[in-house]
Task: inverse folding
Protein backbone atom coordinates (compact mmCIF):
# COMPACT_ATOMS: atom_id res chain seq x y z
CA UNK A 1 0.00 0.00 0.00
CA UNK A 2 1.27 3.48 -0.82
CA UNK A 3 2.24 5.93 1.92
CA UNK A 4 -0.40 8.51 2.88
CA UNK A 5 -0.31 10.63 -0.28
CA UNK A 6 -1.36 13.95 1.21
CA UNK A 7 0.53 15.99 -1.39
CA UNK A 8 -1.51 14.42 -4.18
CA UNK A 9 -4.90 15.14 -2.63
CA UNK A 10 -5.07 18.74 -3.82
CA UNK A 11 -3.93 17.78 -7.32
CA UNK A 12 -6.63 15.10 -7.34
CA UNK A 13 -9.29 17.67 -6.46
CA UNK A 14 -7.91 20.01 -9.13
CA UNK A 15 -8.08 17.25 -11.75
CA UNK A 16 -4.34 17.54 -12.27
CA UNK A 17 -3.25 13.97 -11.59
CA UNK A 18 -2.32 11.64 -14.46
CA UNK A 19 -4.72 8.74 -14.87
CA UNK A 20 -2.41 6.10 -13.39
CA UNK A 21 -1.70 8.15 -10.26
CA UNK A 22 -5.35 9.02 -9.88
CA UNK A 23 -6.42 5.35 -9.93
CA UNK A 24 -3.74 4.46 -7.39
CA UNK A 25 -4.74 7.31 -5.11
CA UNK A 26 -8.42 6.45 -5.30
CA UNK A 27 -7.62 2.86 -4.36
CA UNK A 28 -5.74 4.18 -1.35
CA UNK A 29 -8.62 6.46 -0.40
CA UNK A 30 -11.03 3.55 -0.46
CA UNK A 31 -8.99 1.90 2.27
CA UNK A 32 -7.79 4.89 4.31
CA UNK A 33 -10.27 6.86 6.39
CA UNK A 34 -7.69 9.45 7.43
CA UNK A 35 -6.89 10.40 3.84
CA UNK A 36 -10.59 10.46 2.96
CA UNK A 37 -11.23 12.86 5.80
CA UNK A 38 -8.38 15.10 4.65
CA UNK A 39 -9.65 14.99 1.07
CA UNK A 40 -13.11 15.99 2.26
CA UNK A 41 -11.69 18.83 4.35
CA UNK A 42 -9.74 20.19 1.36
CA UNK A 43 -12.76 19.76 -0.92
CA UNK A 44 -14.92 21.71 1.52
CA UNK A 45 -12.28 24.47 1.58
CA UNK A 46 -12.29 24.71 -2.21
CA UNK A 47 -16.09 24.95 -2.19
CA UNK A 48 -15.87 27.71 0.42
CA UNK A 49 -13.34 29.63 -1.67
CA UNK A 50 -15.70 29.32 -4.61
CA UNK A 51 -18.21 31.33 -2.60
CA UNK A 52 -15.90 34.34 -2.24
CA UNK A 53 -17.58 37.52 -3.45
CA UNK A 54 -16.17 38.90 -6.70
CA UNK A 55 -13.59 41.65 -6.58
CA UNK A 56 -15.06 45.11 -7.08
CA UNK A 57 -15.38 46.24 -10.67
CA UNK A 58 -12.92 48.88 -11.87
CA UNK A 59 -14.09 52.44 -11.51
CA UNK A 60 -15.71 54.03 -14.60
CA UNK A 61 -12.63 56.19 -15.12
CA UNK A 62 -10.16 53.30 -15.03
CA UNK A 63 -9.62 53.09 -18.77
CA UNK A 64 -9.60 56.85 -19.31
CA UNK A 65 -7.03 57.33 -16.55
CA UNK A 66 -4.85 54.64 -18.08
CA UNK A 67 -4.87 56.32 -21.48
CA UNK A 68 -4.11 59.63 -19.78
CA UNK A 69 -1.09 58.07 -18.07
CA UNK A 70 0.01 56.56 -21.38
CA UNK A 71 -0.35 59.90 -23.14
CA UNK A 72 1.56 61.65 -20.36
CA UNK A 73 4.35 59.12 -20.60
CA UNK A 74 4.61 59.62 -24.35
CA UNK A 75 4.66 63.39 -23.93
CA UNK A 76 7.28 63.27 -21.19
CA UNK A 77 11.03 63.51 -21.82
CA UNK A 78 12.77 60.38 -22.98
CA UNK A 79 13.38 57.50 -20.63
CA UNK A 80 16.87 58.78 -19.92
CA UNK A 81 15.39 62.00 -18.58
CA UNK A 82 13.06 60.11 -16.28
CA UNK A 83 15.78 57.91 -14.90
CA UNK A 84 18.23 60.73 -14.38
CA UNK A 85 15.49 62.66 -12.59
CA UNK A 86 14.99 59.70 -10.28
CA UNK A 87 18.71 59.47 -9.70
CA UNK A 88 18.89 63.17 -8.92
CA UNK A 89 15.98 62.82 -6.54
CA UNK A 90 18.02 60.45 -4.48
CA UNK A 91 16.64 57.16 -5.67
CA UNK A 92 20.29 56.26 -5.83
CA UNK A 93 22.21 54.98 -8.74
CA UNK A 94 24.43 53.29 -6.19
CA UNK A 95 21.43 51.25 -5.11
CA UNK A 96 20.56 50.58 -8.71
CA UNK A 97 24.09 49.71 -9.79
CA UNK A 98 24.30 46.05 -8.85
CA UNK A 99 20.93 45.35 -10.38
CA UNK A 100 21.74 47.17 -13.58
CA UNK A 101 25.08 45.43 -13.83
CA UNK A 102 23.32 42.13 -13.32
CA UNK A 103 20.79 42.98 -15.98
CA UNK A 104 23.52 43.95 -18.41
CA UNK A 105 25.49 40.79 -17.72
CA UNK A 106 22.48 38.52 -17.92
CA UNK A 107 21.22 40.21 -21.06
CA UNK A 108 24.60 39.61 -22.65
CA UNK A 109 24.70 36.01 -21.58
CA UNK A 110 21.18 35.41 -22.81
CA UNK A 111 22.30 36.22 -26.35
CA UNK A 112 24.46 33.13 -26.37
CA UNK A 113 22.59 30.48 -24.45
CA UNK A 114 20.25 27.93 -25.95
CA UNK A 115 16.50 28.54 -25.99
CA UNK A 116 17.33 32.15 -26.42
CA UNK A 117 13.87 33.52 -27.06
CA UNK A 118 12.29 31.77 -24.10
CA UNK A 119 15.04 32.88 -21.75
CA UNK A 120 14.77 36.42 -23.08
CA UNK A 121 11.04 36.55 -22.54
CA UNK A 122 11.17 35.19 -19.01
CA UNK A 123 14.05 37.47 -18.15
CA UNK A 124 12.31 40.47 -19.67
CA UNK A 125 9.12 39.86 -17.74
CA UNK A 126 10.94 39.52 -14.46
CA UNK A 127 13.32 42.44 -14.87
CA UNK A 128 11.28 44.76 -17.02
CA UNK A 129 11.75 47.75 -14.80
CA UNK A 130 15.49 47.38 -14.49
CA UNK A 131 15.76 46.77 -18.21
CA UNK A 132 13.93 50.00 -18.94
CA UNK A 133 16.21 51.89 -16.60
CA UNK A 134 19.29 50.34 -18.14
CA UNK A 135 18.20 51.28 -21.62
CA UNK A 136 17.41 54.78 -20.47
CA UNK A 137 20.73 55.27 -18.73
CA UNK A 138 22.53 53.86 -21.72
CA UNK A 139 20.92 56.54 -23.85
CA UNK A 140 22.55 59.56 -22.24
CA UNK A 141 21.27 62.16 -24.63
CA UNK A 142 19.89 64.07 -21.65
CA UNK A 143 22.74 65.37 -19.54
CA UNK A 144 21.70 68.55 -17.85
CA UNK A 145 23.45 68.82 -14.54
CA UNK A 146 26.78 67.98 -12.93
CA UNK A 147 25.02 65.12 -11.17
CA UNK A 148 24.07 63.68 -14.54
CA UNK A 149 27.67 63.84 -15.61
CA UNK A 150 28.67 62.05 -12.45
CA UNK A 151 26.25 59.27 -13.24
CA UNK A 152 27.60 58.97 -16.75
CA UNK A 153 31.15 59.04 -15.48
CA UNK A 154 30.41 56.07 -13.26
CA UNK A 155 28.64 53.94 -15.82
CA UNK A 156 31.69 51.71 -16.00
CA UNK A 157 31.18 50.99 -12.32
CA UNK A 158 27.54 50.17 -12.94
CA UNK A 159 28.61 47.57 -15.46
CA UNK A 160 31.21 46.16 -13.11
CA UNK A 161 28.65 45.88 -10.34
CA UNK A 162 30.48 48.21 -7.99
CA UNK A 163 28.41 49.84 -5.26
CA UNK B 1 2.19 30.63 -30.64
CA UNK B 2 0.67 31.64 -33.97
CA UNK B 3 -2.64 30.11 -32.83
CA UNK B 4 -2.83 32.52 -29.89
CA UNK B 5 -4.99 35.45 -31.02
CA UNK B 6 -3.74 37.60 -28.14
CA UNK B 7 -0.13 37.04 -29.17
CA UNK B 8 -1.18 38.01 -32.68
CA UNK B 9 -2.64 41.23 -31.29
CA UNK B 10 0.57 41.96 -29.42
CA UNK B 11 2.58 41.38 -32.58
CA UNK B 12 0.22 43.65 -34.49
CA UNK B 13 0.81 46.32 -31.88
CA UNK B 14 4.52 45.71 -32.18
CA UNK B 15 4.06 46.44 -35.88
CA UNK B 16 2.39 49.77 -35.10
CA UNK B 17 -1.29 48.89 -34.77
CA UNK B 18 -2.40 50.85 -31.70
CA UNK B 19 -5.91 49.42 -31.92
CA UNK B 20 -4.45 45.98 -31.18
CA UNK B 21 -3.09 47.24 -27.87
CA UNK B 22 -6.44 48.79 -27.03
CA UNK B 23 -8.08 45.43 -27.75
CA UNK B 24 -5.72 43.73 -25.30
CA UNK B 25 -6.43 46.37 -22.68
CA UNK B 26 -10.16 45.96 -23.12
CA UNK B 27 -9.88 42.18 -22.88
CA UNK B 28 -7.57 41.97 -19.87
CA UNK B 29 -7.89 45.30 -18.08
CA UNK B 30 -10.58 44.25 -15.67
CA UNK B 31 -8.94 40.85 -15.05
CA UNK B 32 -5.70 42.62 -14.16
CA UNK B 33 -7.47 44.89 -11.67
CA UNK B 34 -8.99 41.81 -10.03
CA UNK B 35 -5.65 40.04 -9.99
CA UNK B 36 -3.85 43.01 -8.42
CA UNK B 37 -6.69 43.41 -5.93
CA UNK B 38 -5.89 39.95 -4.55
CA UNK B 39 -2.50 41.31 -3.56
CA UNK B 40 -3.24 44.79 -2.24
CA UNK B 41 -6.94 44.78 -1.27
CA UNK B 42 -7.21 48.46 -2.07
CA UNK B 43 -9.40 49.19 -5.12
CA UNK B 44 -7.61 52.41 -6.09
CA UNK B 45 -4.18 50.88 -5.67
CA UNK B 46 -5.23 47.75 -7.56
CA UNK B 47 -6.28 49.92 -10.50
CA UNK B 48 -2.99 51.79 -10.40
CA UNK B 49 -1.02 48.52 -10.35
CA UNK B 50 -3.07 47.14 -13.24
CA UNK B 51 -2.32 50.32 -15.20
CA UNK B 52 1.36 49.89 -14.37
CA UNK B 53 1.21 46.39 -15.83
CA UNK B 54 -0.19 47.69 -19.11
CA UNK B 55 2.34 50.52 -19.23
CA UNK B 56 5.08 47.91 -18.84
CA UNK B 57 3.45 45.83 -21.54
CA UNK B 58 3.33 48.88 -23.81
CA UNK B 59 7.01 49.64 -23.26
CA UNK B 60 8.00 45.99 -23.73
CA UNK B 61 6.31 45.63 -27.10
CA UNK B 62 9.45 46.24 -29.21
CA UNK B 63 11.14 43.32 -27.45
CA UNK B 64 8.14 41.00 -27.37
CA UNK B 65 8.71 37.46 -28.70
CA UNK B 66 5.71 35.11 -28.41
CA UNK B 67 7.21 31.97 -26.94
CA UNK B 68 4.32 31.22 -24.59
CA UNK B 69 0.66 32.17 -24.43
CA UNK B 70 0.19 35.92 -24.22
CA UNK B 71 -1.95 35.48 -21.12
CA UNK B 72 0.92 33.68 -19.39
CA UNK B 73 3.29 36.49 -20.35
CA UNK B 74 0.87 39.10 -19.01
CA UNK B 75 0.33 37.28 -15.71
CA UNK B 76 4.09 36.90 -15.33
CA UNK B 77 4.53 40.66 -15.61
CA UNK B 78 1.65 41.23 -13.20
CA UNK B 79 2.86 38.66 -10.65
CA UNK B 80 6.33 40.13 -10.59
CA UNK B 81 4.97 43.65 -10.32
CA UNK B 82 2.59 42.82 -7.46
CA UNK B 83 5.20 40.86 -5.53
CA UNK B 84 7.68 43.71 -6.01
CA UNK B 85 5.03 46.09 -4.75
CA UNK B 86 4.58 44.03 -1.60
CA UNK B 87 8.34 43.86 -1.08
CA UNK B 88 8.47 47.64 -1.31
CA UNK B 89 5.98 47.78 1.52
CA UNK B 90 3.12 49.36 -0.38
CA UNK B 91 -0.46 49.12 0.83
CA UNK B 92 -0.68 45.50 1.70
CA UNK B 93 -3.10 42.86 2.74
CA UNK B 94 -5.33 43.41 5.69
CA UNK B 95 -4.31 41.49 8.76
CA UNK B 96 -6.70 39.51 10.84
CA UNK B 97 -7.62 35.98 11.69
CA UNK B 98 -10.36 33.62 10.71
CA UNK B 99 -13.28 33.74 13.00
CA UNK B 100 -12.82 37.33 14.13
CA UNK B 101 -16.32 37.92 12.92
CA UNK B 102 -19.15 35.73 14.01
CA UNK B 103 -19.80 33.26 11.16
CA UNK B 104 -23.32 33.53 9.93
CA UNK B 105 -25.49 30.91 8.29
CA UNK B 106 -23.23 29.37 5.61
CA UNK B 107 -26.20 28.22 3.57
CA UNK B 108 -26.63 31.80 2.51
CA UNK B 109 -23.32 31.51 0.62
CA UNK B 110 -24.59 28.69 -1.52
CA UNK B 111 -27.85 30.41 -2.16
CA UNK B 112 -25.85 33.20 -3.79
CA UNK B 113 -28.46 35.71 -2.71
CA UNK B 114 -27.63 39.23 -1.70
CA UNK B 115 -29.20 39.01 1.73
CA UNK B 116 -27.52 41.10 4.43
CA UNK B 117 -26.27 37.88 6.01
CA UNK B 118 -24.76 36.68 2.74
CA UNK B 119 -23.07 40.02 2.17
CA UNK B 120 -21.68 40.05 5.70
CA UNK B 121 -20.46 36.47 5.45
CA UNK B 122 -18.86 37.10 2.07
CA UNK B 123 -17.08 40.14 3.45
CA UNK B 124 -15.84 38.18 6.49
CA UNK B 125 -14.66 35.33 4.29
CA UNK B 126 -12.88 37.72 1.93
CA UNK B 127 -11.16 39.39 4.86
CA UNK B 128 -10.03 36.06 6.31
CA UNK B 129 -8.73 34.86 2.95
CA UNK B 130 -6.73 38.08 2.63
CA UNK B 131 -5.34 37.57 6.13
CA UNK B 132 -4.33 34.08 5.05
CA UNK B 133 -2.66 35.41 1.89
CA UNK B 134 -0.71 37.92 3.95
CA UNK B 135 0.76 35.09 6.00
CA UNK B 136 1.73 32.85 3.08
CA UNK B 137 5.27 32.89 1.67
CA UNK B 138 5.52 34.81 -1.61
CA UNK B 139 5.57 31.88 -4.02
CA UNK B 140 2.74 30.11 -2.21
CA UNK B 141 0.71 33.30 -2.26
CA UNK B 142 1.21 33.76 -5.98
CA UNK B 143 0.46 30.09 -6.69
CA UNK B 144 -2.66 30.23 -4.53
CA UNK B 145 -3.96 33.36 -6.23
CA UNK B 146 -3.28 31.96 -9.70
CA UNK B 147 -4.81 28.55 -8.96
CA UNK B 148 -7.64 29.29 -6.58
CA UNK B 149 -8.68 32.82 -7.45
CA UNK B 150 -7.71 33.04 -11.14
CA UNK B 151 -8.33 29.40 -12.08
CA UNK B 152 -5.11 28.83 -14.04
CA UNK B 153 -4.03 25.20 -14.59
CA UNK B 154 -0.80 24.00 -12.97
CA UNK B 155 1.10 24.07 -16.27
CA UNK B 156 0.34 27.75 -16.82
CA UNK B 157 1.15 28.61 -13.22
CA UNK B 158 4.52 26.91 -13.69
CA UNK B 159 5.12 29.12 -16.75
CA UNK B 160 4.06 32.27 -14.92
CA UNK B 161 6.18 31.57 -11.87
CA UNK B 162 9.01 30.14 -13.94
CA UNK B 163 9.11 26.89 -12.03
CA UNK B 164 8.15 23.24 -12.56
CA UNK B 165 4.74 21.62 -12.42
CA UNK B 166 5.74 19.42 -9.44
CA UNK B 167 6.84 22.57 -7.61
CA UNK B 168 3.49 24.21 -8.38
CA UNK B 169 1.69 21.12 -7.13
CA UNK B 170 3.53 21.40 -3.85
CA UNK B 171 3.01 25.16 -3.55
CA UNK B 172 -0.72 24.93 -4.28
CA UNK B 173 -1.17 22.00 -1.90
CA UNK B 174 0.60 23.69 1.01
CA UNK B 175 -1.37 26.88 0.46
CA UNK B 176 -4.64 24.95 0.26
CA UNK B 177 -3.87 23.13 3.52
CA UNK B 178 -3.11 26.50 5.10
CA UNK B 179 -6.46 27.74 3.80
CA UNK B 180 -8.25 24.73 5.27
CA UNK B 181 -6.64 25.44 8.64
CA UNK B 182 -7.34 29.18 8.50
CA UNK B 183 -10.95 28.78 7.40
CA UNK B 184 -11.74 25.89 9.74
CA UNK B 185 -14.33 27.91 11.71
CA UNK B 186 -16.45 28.22 8.57
CA UNK B 187 -16.13 24.51 7.81
CA UNK B 188 -17.09 23.51 11.37
CA UNK B 189 -20.13 25.71 11.19
CA UNK B 190 -21.06 24.16 7.87
CA UNK B 191 -20.83 20.66 9.26
CA UNK B 192 -22.85 21.60 12.31
CA UNK B 193 -25.53 23.17 10.16
CA UNK B 194 -25.49 20.23 7.74
Result:
Amino acid sequence: MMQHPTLELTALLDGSLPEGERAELEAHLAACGGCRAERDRLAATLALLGALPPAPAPSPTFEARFHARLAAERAAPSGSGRVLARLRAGFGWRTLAPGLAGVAAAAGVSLYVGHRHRADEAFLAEHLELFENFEAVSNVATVETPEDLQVVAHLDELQEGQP
Amino acid sequence: MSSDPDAALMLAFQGGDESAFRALFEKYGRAMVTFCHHFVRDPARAEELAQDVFLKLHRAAPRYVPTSRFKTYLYRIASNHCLNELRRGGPSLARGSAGDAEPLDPDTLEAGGATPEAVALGAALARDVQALLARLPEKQRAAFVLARLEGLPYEEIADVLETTVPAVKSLVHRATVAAADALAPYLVTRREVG
